[in-house]
Amino acid sequence: MSGGGIRGDVRPVRLAHLGLGAFFRAHQAWYTAHAPDAEAWGIAAFTGRRPDLAVALNAQDCRYTLIERHADGDRAEIVSSIAAAYAGTDLEAWRTTIASPEVGAITLTVTEAAYPAVPERDDALLADVRRWPEGAPSTVTGRILAGLHARRAADAGPLALVSCDNLPDNGAVLRHAVRWAAGEVDSGLAGWIERHVSFVSTVVDRITPASTDEDRAAAKELTCWADASPVVTEPFSEWILSGDFPAGRPGWDGAGARFVDDVEPFVRRKLWLLNGAHSLLAYAAATRGHETVADAVHDEVCVGWMGEWWDAAQRHLGLDAADVLEYRNALRYRFANPRIRHRLAQIGMDGSQKLPVRVLPVLRADLAAGHSPVGAARPIAAWIRHLRGETFEVRDPAAATFTAAASGPPRDAVRAVVSLLDEDLAEQRDLVRLIEGLVRDLG
Ligand code: CS2
Fold this sequence. Notes:
This protein is an alpha/beta fold. 49% of the residues lie in helices and 14% in strands. It folds into two domains: 5-262, NAD(P)-binding Rossmann-like Domain (Rossmann fold); 265-441, N-(1-d-carboxylethyl)-l-norvaline Dehydrogenase, domain 2, CATH 1.10.1040. Helix 7 (170-185) runs antiparallel to helix 8 (187-196). Bound molecules: D-mannonic acid. The site of D-mannonic acid has 9 residues, from helix 10 and helix 14. GO terms for molecular function: mannitol-1-phosphate 5-dehydrogenase activity. It comes from Phytoactinopolyspora halotolerans.
């Protein structure tokens, strides 16, 4: 293996992570560092998108400062649960890590876009499958397959795959993609995966804005150490998991994680109320000139929109009203944290991947139940304004398709964008007219 951090007190690598970014460092790496058996669980963390971060972390023994940003001040700690960091291109390190019998689980934060909804129609995954076993896989599924192939060859035993991305039933989505791809390339491997790999579904939550030069200065002030890549996060944090760990896991529950039989009620609550409100604010508040979530929730107009969205989502959550109210109040408090500068442009990335899971289920449920779907239609209307170039830069894997669809006269734009999301919805004239009106009225 090459590229890993080497230090005297290094923790044994028993976890692998794919998607080494700020969120992982504020969340899973933090839970691992706070587990009662933390000393026994080091993480080998891989990044496809941020090779620079792997270099920066290795230069400081993979330790980093985590700043918990409370409304009234900062608290800092040094997190040491990462044992080694690698660029995702280091396939040899990846294979060696996953082939180690010491490694019991792989956690993933690879963004919604990395999970193919229909694997058999995903061009990048099809290319990985066609190339197999030659060359380096370009998709997350392909990379996982390469790791599992090495693990099987080494007879290293069972393993848990733990998806930590904001998707409903993320473990099942990952399982479907991995099993499909395995079946295409090697039936022996597919059978081995079936018998040895468990897919854990999770709900993850911790608001983590991208860090800035001021955050680096704040970290140094707090710890007297010039950390090149500290992470700033909110005090709140939640991790709910469901599934088996056939090769063990850290005592994450000792650090506050919850293990449940079914994550489903928690998934919708978080995806709809938190992430849905985030996406609404990202686009709608930007039409009013706001830059951050905290700015947006100090604007009564945006707060009204958020309330309408929450009312719509709540109608279909099927949860106790008092609990939902408490959750909504807690969210309002978290969003208003004046010291967390969570930029709307950061949240507004990848809307084509996020809106279908955060907003469309509520819109469909409202229509099916005969409600006026204003609250659930507004995020789509605001996104169309964004796609029409009226807010921040569009950053999305499907940017070209969606910005082209959004570029015509308003009614055509609404119909074209909605039909890319769901052809049946685009056929509903009243809905198209409603969204068109909302597009006009935003701002
Ligand atoms: C946000 C999430 O960027 C986004 O899409 O909605 O990253 C959100 O901050 C986290 O899910 C909070 O747990």
